[in-house]
Amino acid sequence: DPPSLSLSVTLDGLDLFWFHFPGSRWNSGVPGLPPWPSELETPQEILPESQICREILREFGPRLQQLLPEARGLPVVSVLPALPPVPGEPNWLLCVVQNIFPPALEISWGSAGAAAPIPGPFEPAADGSFQRVARLSLLPRPGDVHACRVTARNCSIVEYWGEKKLGVFGEFF
């Protein structure tokens, strides 16, 4: 997708205000919040700056398209065992996260008695994005369900691993 024009003021991930470019006005992102102070970043100050950004993108965007990595959408998360699971035998559960850019995210596990994940480093991929693997030590037991939570700047993704409801132990999804 082509870059989109947006401007917002946030606090701890909460969108306090956002600028509506077509209407050339600030909007509140939180009900009941007082209006944007008129002396701060007026539309007359913002619109010329946004025009400069558009011109820079138009001029340099095509030249840098194949040279610089860019955000490629949401990370892709997969959870799988390191070895075929056998009840009561030690194993590792791997949370493989691909399509990461920029290389900044947190990985955590959700399950009864789960230890802290052991994250690996961010590794570069051939397409300019990054990937990362986090592993969790476990003793597989019937009924186990584990969740790998990936939290990036703009999203949270949860991928589950565990015993299927129907079938015998050892059939995992």
Topology:
Blueprint: E1 8-11, E2 14-20, E3 25-28, H1 43-64, E4 76-81, E5 91-100, E6 105-110, E7 118-119, E8 123-124, E9 130-138, E10 145-152, E11 155-162
Antiparallel strand pairs: 1-2, 2-3, 4-5, 5-9, 6-10, 7-9, 8-9, 10-11
Protein architecture, described:
The protein is mainly beta. The protein has 2 domains: 7-66, no CATH class; 76-162, Immunoglobulin-like (Sandwich), CATH 2.60.40.10. Helix content is 13%, strand content 38%. The strands form 3 sheets. Strands 4, 5, 7, 8 and 9 form a 5-stranded antiparallel beta sheet that branches. A 3-stranded antiparallel beta sheet has the order 1-2-3, with no helix packed on it. Strands 6-10-11 form a 3-stranded antiparallel beta sheet, with no helix packed on it. Residues 75-158 form the Ig-like domain. Keywords: Membrane, Transmembrane, Transmembrane helix.
Q: What gross morphology would you assign? A: elongated
Number of helices: 1
CATH arch. level architecture of the largest domain: Sandwich
Question: Uncertain runs with pLDDT below 50, 5 residues or more?
Answer: 165-173
> How far is it from the N-terminal to the C-terminal residue, by CA?
32 Å
Summarize the main sheet.
5 strands, antiparallel
Quaternary organisation = single chain
Order of helices and strands: EEEHEEEEEEEE
Mean pLDDT: 80
Portion in helices: 10-25%
- Let me know the number of strands: 11
Topology-level CATH name of the largest domain: Immunoglobulin-like
CATH homology-level superfamily of the largest domain? Immunoglobulins
Strand content: 35-45%
The Cα radius of gyration reads 22 Å
Quickly name the level 1 CATH class of the largest domain.
Answer: Mainly Beta
Subcellular location: Membrane
Keywords: Membrane, Transmembrane, Transmembrane helix
InterPro entries: Ig-like_dom (IPR007110), Ig-like_dom_sf (IPR036179), Ig-like_fold (IPR013783), Ig_C1-set (IPR003597), MHC/Immunoglobulin (IPR050160), MHC_II_a/b_N (IPR014745)
Domain Ig-like: 75-158
